[in-house]
Amino acid sequence: MITLLLVFLLAVAAAADLPQSNVGKRLTTRYDDYLSDPSAYRTQVEKEAYLFPEGRLYPYMFPTLAYTNLAARDPLEREHAREQVGKLVDLALGTTRHMVGVPLDEVDDYRGHGTWLGSSLLMLGCWRYLGGDDRYEEIHRALADSLGTALKAEKYGALDSYPGSAWPVDTMVVALGLALRDHQTGIPKHRTMMTKHFDWVDQHATDPRTKLPVFLVDAEHGFHRDLPRGCDLSLRIAFLAQVAPDRAQSMYDEYAARFWISRSILGSGFAEWEGGMDGTGDIDSGIVFKGLGMAATGMGLATTRAVGDMNRWAILHVELQGFRTMMPALLPIAKNDLVFNKLPISNEYATGFLFGDAVLFWAVTWEDWGLEKLD
User: Fold this and answer.
1) d(Cα 31, Cα 77) in Å, to the nearest integer?
2) Of 18, 52, 197, 232, which has the fewest CB atoms closer than 10 Å, so is most exposed?
């Protein structure tokens, strides 16, 4: 009864568009503290997030998206958000330049680095969206042009995330970055190619049985070779809703029907695999506990808000508020996990680790940026 009452009150608060949750406020304060010394934050990222393939990128990208959310929600936050995003962009561009191997303002071939270049494009788009000046314009133009050219060359299919490997959700990041570029220039240069890419996903990278996008595709031949997964879908739908809300809603309806788990004792949330199949978590899913995916459920805070499912959003907020009480039960799982036993897990973090908090900061603050919609 108490849980149902909390769900109801949170749903009412969400409908009234009240300020962000306590977790969101704590994370905002935490990241403001981190960014008071960007060099120290970079050192912390290098030390604690090295295990993740994007460990030197996403701890900069997701807080950038979070600050953009805060500014979209409250224009009075715009100046502060821009200041913080500038610091994060500087940190990210340095590591991206190292990863790609050429000066970013000279990039004319994306070289299979869709993840790094796409994320940098998205961050630069946030900088301009927040009213940032043109200090990064040469890099911004080069990334938009090279990734747009690559998308055409791939006949609007998935770009390589890394050379030879393609996770289609990474091309969703590119698409959102191109949408922000169009928003900044006022020229709908990439509108058609985004629509064609989304059509390609429907035709070539969607599981015919579930009608949901697959997790991984064959980068060379374009056919899918993996099942839909919760960690991908929660992220993808929340990004897609910024530019194509009707597509996002349709995808979400299938996702919620097949992946949502509702339990009164072990917790509710999104499964990593359809129907809540249990399994060992990996670097993408996070810990899988009784079928619930840590990443799928955490990012589900953004997903549910993005499509207006405030009932499930409220349920997830209740789960989030009580997550710390579950930490003692999850720590042994993390320590026995072949991946997560190498992470510095700590109660200092809302999710137990730095990388997770960066993603949660974005998820718990999700806001519609008011971009031009494709549908």
Assistant:
1) 14
2) 18
